[in-house]
Specification:
The protein is an alpha/beta fold. The chain is built from 10 helices and 10 strands. Strands 1, 2, 3, 4, 5, 6, 7, 8, 9 and 10 form a 10-stranded mixed beta sheet that branches.
């Protein structure tokens, strides 16, 4: 399917294996009008991975110094030519029909986001092997989202004009940039949840991008987020413990499961470089 140009924004830092799998997932998209902008946040070069996907329209922006992931996203946005934007972390995956579906869903909205499947994995023989998966699907309740956000930015699609209203991502929010982005969007624009798990959200016991260190750094930025939006006292407990809270559990919803469990093997094979 073709249509208006969609810019896929990917910040990355030293995760060539995961980035290769994401490029594989993007090469399989049924929606073809894509430009992919990779913001390499002063990490190792990504060109050898990108070169394996010559059919994709990819632009690499090499940041001279590491400015963290939010700044990398903003830098990539400066290069975006599409009328629509898709965000994606470099270790997450989009199922083949995801962008096409989101483009249909945004007809009467400014921003749409989907449900996801969280997958745990180990790395074996230069590829990720899924060890477990679980559904992450919650009703869209803007007031409840002020207490606990169930907005997953990976795979969300929105009109580029959103940034004319909201400005760039707030680099001062750091860990909570996505929560801040959702709250600003929901206050002023039309936001919708799509009840389909079209995104695979990576989590690994080997190094998580979900739980991580919930210490002083998280407290500092969470307090900053709360002050900006008037959210009151917010907890910094482990992500999965917060999902067990009654107020969160009652928001759980049904969703359409789309993934058949098949992997997205990249054309990039890091073990070959080790020989």
């Amino acid at each position: 399917m073709t249509g208006p140009l969609v810019s896929v924004i990917i910040p990355t830092y030293n995760r060539l294996l995961q980035l290769g799998e994401l490029l594989e997932a993007l090469a399989r998209q049924t929606y073809r009008s894509l430009e992919i902008i990779i913001a390499n946040d002063a990490g190792e070069p990504v060109d050898r991975v990108v070169a394996l996907y010559g059919e994709l329209n990819v632009k690499v922006v090499n940041l001279p110094v590491n400015g963290r992931h939010v700044r990398a996203r903003n830098r990539a946005l400066e290069e975006a030519a599409g009328d629509y934007i898709v965000l994606c972390d470099d270790d997450d995956l989009l199922l083949p029909s995801h962008v096409e579906r989101m483009m249909r869903e945004i007809a009467d909205c400014d921003l749409v986001y989907s449900d996801v499947e969280i997958f745990d994995y180990v790395i074996e023989h230069g590829a990720r092997k899924v060890t477990s998966r679980s559904v992450f699907a919650y009703e869209h309740d803007p007031e409840a989202m002020r207490r606990f956000s169930t907005f997953v930015p990976s795979g969300c699609l929105y009109r580029r004009s959103v940034h004319q209203v909201l400005g760039p991502f707030d680099e001062e929010m750091n860990h909570y940039w996505d929560w801040d982005f959702y709250l600003r969007a929901a206050e002023r624009l039309r936001v919708k949840r799509v009840p389909a798990a079209g995104v695979l959200y990576a989590f690994s016991q080997q190094g998580s991008n979900i739980s991580g260190n919930q210490g002083a750094s998280h407290r500092h930025y969470l307090d900053r987020l709360s002050a900006k939006h008037g959210l009151g006292e917010l907890p910094t407990a482990n992500f999965f413990l917060l999902l067990e809270e009654p107020d969160v559990k009652k928001r759980q919803s049904t969703t359409e499961i789309l993934w058949d469990g098949s992997p997205f093997p990249s054309r990039y094979r890091p073990q070959a470089e080790e020989r």
